[in-house]
TrEMBL record:
Residues 4-176 form the CobW/HypB/UreG nucleotide-binding domain. The lineage of its organism: Bacteria, Bacillati, Bacillota, Tissierellia, Dethiosulfatibacter. One of its GO terms (cellular component) is cytoplasm. It holds the Pfam family cobW. This is CobW/HypB/UreG, nucleotide-binding domain. It comes from the Bacteria.
Length: 195
């Protein structure tokens, strides 16, 4: 089983990105499960996804990087033993530190082939969020394998260049893609990076 960990601040577009990625994943006949840790604006319709063959587990009331570490281990072991998907996508809360989640998984679960961390950056609120919580967003970016700058439909070229440059200063080797999940811009390219 491979794991894709989605991080990024509340409202950045994690669920929207995930639903678009699931479309691609299902097209490629990849068996997939979802762990939803954040109650957000856009809900994950478990019943609908189950209909498409996607197993959905919900873990609410805390964060999988700290208060719910035992629960995420239990849930991932349950998914592995009972569904054995090729890929499990975890949507963490906006407050989660992905490096801590990766440590918990690596220290407690066997049989994980690969864990990738994808951070979703809210292009529209980037400057504001960096002003308010640089340590958290910076830690999320540092722990990422791939960064998707989302909501590019809301920002101009100059703003996008600034954000890309800022992310590259924080983590020069990280792969950065510019997307609009809502408008399906560059989502196939993002899926290719992940699958
Ligand atoms: N303008 C714009 N809005 C988006 C885009 N992607 C997501 N959103 C909106 O951002 C809000 C938060 O999205 P959601 O996926 O729930 O974010 P999450 O909290 O990180 O899971 C919703 O109102 C989405 O419709 C995008 O590409 N462009
Ligand atoms: Mg969400």
């Amino acid at each position: 089983m491979e794991i894709l960990l989605l991080s990024g601040f509340l409202g950045s577009g994690k669920t929207t990105v995930m639903l678009e990625l699931l479309d691609e994943v299902v097209k490629h006949d990849i068996k997939v499960a979802v762990v939803e840790n954040e109650i957000g604006q856009i809900g994950v319709d478990g019943k609908y996804l189950k209909h498409c063959g996607v197993e959905v587990q919900e873990l609410f009331g805390g964060c999988i990087c700290c208060t719910l570490t035992a629960d995420i281990v239990h849930t991932l072991n349950y998914i592995k033993d009972n569904h054995n998907p090729d890929l499990t996508i975890i949507e963490a809360t906006g407050a989660a530190r992905p490096a801590d989640v990766v440590d918990v998984i690596n220290s407690n679960i066997t049989g994980i082939k690969d864990i990738k961390t994808l951070s979703i950056v809210d292009g529209y609120r980037y400057k504001l969020l960096m002003k308010m919580m640089k340590p958290l967003i910076g830690a999320q970016l540092l722990a990422s394998d791939i960064v998707a700058i989302n909501k590019i439909d809301e920002i101009d070229e100059e703003e996008l260049c600034f954000i890309t440059g800022d992310i590259k200063r924080i983590k020069p080797e990280v792969k950065v893609l510019c997307v609009s999940a809502e408008n399906r811009v560059n989502m196939v390219e993002l899926a290719k990076e992940i699958l």
